Every structure is written in C-alpha cells, then in structure tokens.
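Standup notes
- HV: blocked on the assembly model, inputs below
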Amino acid sequence: MTDVPRITGVLSPVVTPFGADLAPDPERFVRQCRWLLSQNVGLAIFGTNSEANSLSVEEKIELLDRLVAAGLDPARMMPGTGCCALTDSVRLTAHAMKVGCGGVLMLPPFYYKGVSDDGLFRSFAEVIERVGDARLRVYVYHIPPVAQVPITLGLVERLLAAYPAQVAGMKDSGGDWSNTKAFLDAFAKAGFDVFAGSETFLLQNMRHGGAGCISATANVHPGPIARLYDTWRAEGADAQQARLDVIRGVFQKFPMIPALKAAIAHHGHDAGWASVRPPLVALTSAQSTALITELDAQRFTMPGLAIR
Amino acid sequence: MTDVPRITGVLSPVVTPFGADLAPDPERFVRQCRWLLSQNVGLAIFGTNSEANSLSVEEKIELLDRLVAAGLDPARMMPGTGCCALTDSVRLTAHAMKVGCGGVLMLPPFYYKGVSDDGLFRSFAEVIERVGDARLRVYVYHIPPVAQVPITLGLVERLLAAYPAQVAGMKDSGGDWSNTKAFLDAFAKAGFDVFAGSETFLLQNMRHGGAGCISATANVHPGPIARLYDTWRAEGADAQQARLDVIRGVFQKFPMIPALKAAIAHHGHDAGWASVRPPLVALTSAQSTALITELDAQRFTMPGLAIR
C-alpha cells in the first residue's frame, strides 16, 4: 500500500456534451465538471452515463487533457478506461496515470458474453501489468444490465490477491443491494472501496462500510447527494435519502441519459446540451416538457448551473 | 446502383494470430488469408471470430494495410467496421473504402442495450453519410447472442429506403433459420444479399435466394464449404451439407474461437496460432487433444495449410 489519498464520496459519471456535428464539446464539458466539483462531487468521467463507449479513445484523451489543462484537480477524477480491446484499455489507463488521475473505473471487456473469470482476470491483470504504475488505483465496474459481463466475488478475490495495491474497489451498478452487501462483507475491511451505482443505496452502503456512490443523477442533483454522504451519521439522514429517492424517481421515468441532458439544457439555459450520440436518441419535446414539469412540481433546482 | 461487383459466396471471419506479447502478427495473418483465398473463400476479416473487438482501430488498420500491401485482392474483403463509437466506425469504414474493400460488415453499436430502431438507423446513417463514398457496400450484422442488439426487418426497410445503393445485405448469425428466411422473403428480390451466419444454413439459404455464408468454420474447412456453394444446385448437395454439419459439430463441442486456432496450430504445425487475447482463453491441452482426436476420426484435413 502507498500513501496516495483514496477517492471517496459522491462522484458523477459526467454526461458528455456534443456539438451540432456530434463532436464532443470540451468547453461545455469543462464548465460542467467545474460546477460538479463546486458541489463537492468528484468526476467519474467516461462512464456509462457519459456515453463513453460512443467516444473513440482519442476523443476521451482529448477531453481528459482539456479538464487538466483547465486546472481541474486530477486527484478528483476516476475516468472510465475499460474497453473491449486490451490495447485501448492500456492506452487510456496509462494516459489517466500520466495526468495524475486518482483512480480509473474499469469495465470488463464486454463484447464476448459468457467469458470465464480466468479470461477476465487475465484482462485486468494485463492492463495493470502493462501500465506498470505503482500509483494506479483500479475500481472494477459491475454493470450486468448493460455490459452483460459480471464481476464476481471470486474474480475480485483473485485480483486482490495478485494486485493488493492496485485493486482499490468497485462500482456496483447491478441494482441489487444484496450483491453490493456481499462485496462489502467480503472485502470492505481489507480496504476495498465499494461505491454504490446510484444514490438509492448511498445510505445503506455507508452504514455497511462503503465508500460512497457514483450515480447518474449526481449529474443533476449533486449538492444534496454529496450532503447525504457528508452527514450520513446525523439525524435526518433517512429523510435526506427519501428526498433523493423522489428526485431520482422522476428521472427514472424517462430514458436516463437524455433526461439528464434535458435537465441540464433547461436549468442551464443551454439547449445544445440536449444532444446525444447515436444509438441514443434525445427526449422528444413532449418528454422534455413532462420531465421539467414533474421536476418543477418537486421544487427541483440546480443551484449555480446557469451562472457559470 | 453502380456496377461494382457484389461479394457473394463463402467468406471466413478470419481468426487473428497473436504473438507471445499478444500483438497481432501480420505475417501469419497474410499467410492465412492467402490460403483462404486459395480455397475460394473470401475474407470477412475483423468479425466476431477474428476477436476484432479485442483489437484497437489502429491494429485493425495496420492488419488491413498489410493484406493489401501483400497483394491480396481487396475486392474479396469485407472487413468488420462497426464499433461502439460512431467516430471509430467512420474511421474504419472510410479506411476500408480507401483501400478498395468490396464491402464492410457492420455491427450495430453494442454497448447500450434496448436501444431504439431510430437510434440504430441514425447510427448506420451517420456512418454512410460521413464516409460519403458511392462505392460503399454495407452489410449489417445481426448477432443477438453476442451483440445483444438485434437488426430488425423494420430497420433494414428504413435503411434500404434511405440508402438503396449502400445497404447491400446482411449477415444473420442469430442461429434462427426462420429469421434468415424472413429477411430473404422481404428483401432478397430487391437485391439485398443475405449471408447465413454459418454453413449450417448454407444450402437452405441458397435455395431461398441467399448470397452465401460467412462462417467461423470457413477458417478451417474452407474448400468443402466453398464447394457446396459452387454446386448447391447439383445432385449430392444434401450429402455435402451433411458432411459439413458433422465437421462443424465437432468444433461446436469446444469454445469456437480457441478451437479454430487450435486446429490451425495443429494442422499448420505452428503452435503460436493457439494464442487468444483476453477475455478469451486458449483450449487446455486436454481440450486440444480431444478436438484433434475427434477431427482425425472424421478424417478431417486442411489441405495446403502446412506447406505455405
């Protein structure tokens, strides 16, 4: 183990803004990331909600470089660097280390289905060995509804045994609390940091030794989610959790990524934010109106977003 | 429509050889592709069986360039160019056109699941428009067991209406003949070329107006599969099909990609061929022995492979 500070708390899988030509927009991206940091939320850029797998490796490297060039703290960044191709994962992970990222969130290779833990172990091991950086902190990413390739307890056990300093934790986006709890029970005491995949499980996760959450809705509701993390031991934590659940429930009535972008477009007075890359499609105008109406009914706001 | 000759017949999703460092081996790749062409089998390089999604875009471009530099005919090539990221698909497809490939086989973006036909239409349309080459021939790739994102009849109908010259056909690797037949019935008469995803359906496909097959086992059994394509109207075609099914049945008892490579390693006297990239794993020595024993029992040979 080394003395590199570990990432904890609430992180946002930052949504990626696109221009009219569908190219990533680094200026909007920097502004959004700066706002999230101001709300005490870290930057899990290039996650599922970032449409990261709809971006080339070059596009991701350019966006990361722009954040660092803009003076944002790389220690607060946990970019997604797990790709289908070993060489892509190595290239992105090495670049994240080069610029000083606090960690990387790694999907397993997700094209082939039904692969063995032997094959997945070797995938992660090859990346760790080839990057060969003592500062590397890998968070493995369990998201079976999308990747369809799960991270098992047995795989984490093998990875921890082989790379105790590099294998730092996981994000569990399976939506099944009993699975998250199984990882907490097995590995949290050994310093393996479990992030819940949404704020729905933030309070439970903290009460069982978790490290925080990495949540889609931290893109739009960062301050209140970060506040629950900061005060989870205090009286009223359950009421905070209930309020977070209401807001998340509104977003979950719509396709999540387009809905996050629609809310940012509306509350940031910046219609360009609504754009998504294919194969996703933006909300229809009727869907956007319904989303905003429901959020307004909940007195939902995004303080500080419009005046950046 | 233009007068570019259309690809028909039997193609192999060519397995990709790796060195001990897991880097693609262009020399072995060129030799293998030359042997396949000598067996009258075309080159659907960068398919599922090629571990194409375990390769970076740069690695694929380098391998394609090496084939062309070696004098292999690009008109016989149908590289897989469909990636998760729009920009990667555009880059690879444009490069395939630049070197004169006869067509490209395009997976839908496969990370996000449950995406709409609107989003998939826009994905293919953006690639076709951005590549902007009248010679482009796109074969859409339906392989729901792996990609988990299907190609529907409705999607093909829309694509054909919008891009009648570019949307040339499909590969159906769903393993469900009734689906293949539905596409044949709907579109074959309009010149949409349906390739079965394995030789199991080659004879049926030809009898219903199909264009051939693109099959994993064409990597190892190319001559006999191509012979059935050439003589499917002749007496004895059913007996040929039955013999092909027996050989394929042996390979299907093992993980397909490692088994193909093990057979090439054995019959080509070149142990290096057995290597696969993670997340796949090579056959165990016991599995390899069992495979070769069963193939020997069927008097299986790979004529001309060892003397390249």
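- HV (later): unblocked. Chain B has a mean pLDDT of 97. Chain B has one domain: 9-236.
- Next: hand off to the docking folks.
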